[in-house]
Amino acid sequence: MAPVETTERLGRSLGFFSTFAIGTGTMIGAGIFLLPGIAMANAGSGAIISFLLGGLITIATSISMAELATGMPLAGGSYYYISRTMGAAFGAVIGLGSWLALIFKGTFALIGLAEYAQIFHPMPIYLVAAVTGVLLLIINFRGAKSSGSLQNFIVVILLLILFVFIGEVSLEVRPENLLPVAPHGVVSIFTTAGIIFISYLGLAEAAAVAEEVKNPSKNLPRAFIASAVVVTLFYAGIMAVVAGFSGPEGGASTVTPLADIAGFIAGDSGKFFIAFSALLATLSTANGAILSSSRFPFAMSRDALMPKWFVSIHKKYETPHNAILVTGSVMVLLLFLFDIEQLARLGGAFNILIFILLNMAVIILRKRTLPGYEPTFRDPFFPFTQIFGVVGSMLLLPLLGGLPLLFSVLMIFAGAGWYMFYGKDKAMPAYNLFDLLENNVERVSAEPEPVGRVLVPVSNPGHERDLLKLADLLGNEIICLHVVEVPSQISLTVGQELYHEKQIEIDSRFRDYFEQYPAKFGNKRDYIVAFDHTISNSIIEQAEIENADIIIMGWHDSKRFKYSFGDVTNDVLLSSKSQIALLKGHLPDSIKKVLVAYNGRENSVHGLSLAKKIAENTGASIRIISIVSPDEDPEKKAKIAEELEGLVKKIPSTPASFKLLERYSIEDAILEVSNGYDLTIIGDSSERFKISLLGTLSQRIARHARKPVMIVKKSKPISKESLNYLLKKYARKAYAKFRKEKGRD
């Protein structure tokens, strides 16, 4: 009997209204009861415009988010979208930033709850807030199965109460109270928009339930956009009636303006009713912050950006107890460090960063291809929606003040530092923003061009033999380059004359060895002596003049891998347009077995191509290994194994085999296997910045390997020339479009 195939599926139980309620619930809550007074104190009646401006930016971002969500209908929210578009480093920044923003909003809600509790009975505000925070921490630590349904119920009740409030108070509005529109100046309106931006925090996180939504291609865009529009209308409506009823000064003089207005209109019963609603809203917001505290750490831990400890599940309560404990504790601690307006500014600053990156992600993905990204909803107003979202957000950020701006910058450095310290070379996704911009995210299948001309810079007679042997195995023409470094104080011509006068002995040895080297394959050979003030500049220049396909350089002292800025190899890696091979160790007299660490990226494909050439010329066998995490999806493992099998079949003239290794540490796996091979070839896939010109993974393997290692890298420098090329390219397109439209007129 044939085996029965098992198919696993995730249930989709959320319809439009459930998704709409989640999106609305993340925004409407504590802010609606607390921020009107703060906003009017800063901008007067202009605060109405502030909320509208914040709402318009949120609506624009909700449209961008809808496109991202239908293209990536998976859990993870803004963290997932941004990390998959811009790489793991940006993911670390946005993951930590979103998590901290959620904590700030939770603390903000706790203070608001304590303020409204005063209406029922005067108590120490910070004591009430702290006790409530601890109680919520304990409740979530032990588990709360119905909290999700309770949140949706609270949202519906709040919308009904606020609708009735707007209707009743609008009858008492006096138009003269709305004037002047900007008593504190126009800038105050924009500044206030940044302060109240915390109200819209959380919309992007509604996408965390995208994989549970029925018919996501329709329900996700409708729910996200409807949530943003409804919340914006409610915020603007509340501000209009508050300002129109009490005037700028009246609304600005209290932290609880809605309850005070309800007291004027309906007496104590109205005041207590609104206060009770505010307690529900602030409690819901604070509880939601703790309830969602594991969302970002969970998503980051799946991508190896966060320790598993942080999201471990309690054996008894089945809750992410460590994440809840840390989040709740930090929320309570922040109560005693910042006042309510500072919390609003800080939370708003992080929300602005999230919105900027979400809108930029759509712009990038419209211009570049991300495998598997096929959104069913596309913004019909692209790119104007995204430009408005980015520019509007960026204008608000510096107006929030020095502290929020400082916190934002520190968070960026903290996220990038955490990535470098903890997640580099193991975090997902393995590609970065530049790979996506270059359409180099997918595993490369095209065969690279064969190596023809090889440039070998020599500086040490002891290294020359290995470099020339490698060049002889790889290329058809060998160019040996000896650079004579001329002091900056004298001209190159004078340096050349002094060189010939002294007849430097070391260069004579270089030339003699090169001429006597027994090139086994009859390769054409040239010898160049170059005079330059900078060795690296000479190597780069001569490689371009000679049209070299590859530059072979050697490092034999493992400590040299701890190079500093300004090193010759650094400069060549940064600026050379040629492919580069760095050899660590001495080649054996006979190469019989070659190991290739393969990950499907461009440099890895180049490394395999060079391995084929070496094997053809030496008769060596090739072993291709690819390392995947044991937790990787079985279908992806099977796909990679199938790809490796296909690569082996394309090497008919050479004994070749492959192995898919399941290891958590790529470094340990390669080092373990490399001991049994004469040469290990690694394609370096690190970033293009000076701090990681040669990736830390490649450095560690080369430093600890017992056998020779060749690291292959094709540098893609971001130079002034490339930037100019891009600017001219888009300028030409814009000019052509202008001419075409003018011709129509």
UniProtKB/TrEMBL annotation:
The chain crosses the membrane at residues 14-35, 47-66, 87-111, 123-141, 153-171, 183-203, 224-245, 272-298, 319-338, 344-365, 403-422. It is a multi-pass membrane protein. Residues 22-388 form the Amino acid permease/ SLC12A domain. InterPro entries: AA-permease/SLC12A_dom, APC_superfamily, Universal_stress_UspA, UspA. It is found in: Membrane. GO terms for cellular component: membrane. This is Amino acid permease. It comes from Methanosarcina mazei (Methanosarcina frisia). The lineage of its organism: Archaea, Methanobacteriati, Methanobacteriota, Stenosarchaea group, Methanomicrobia.
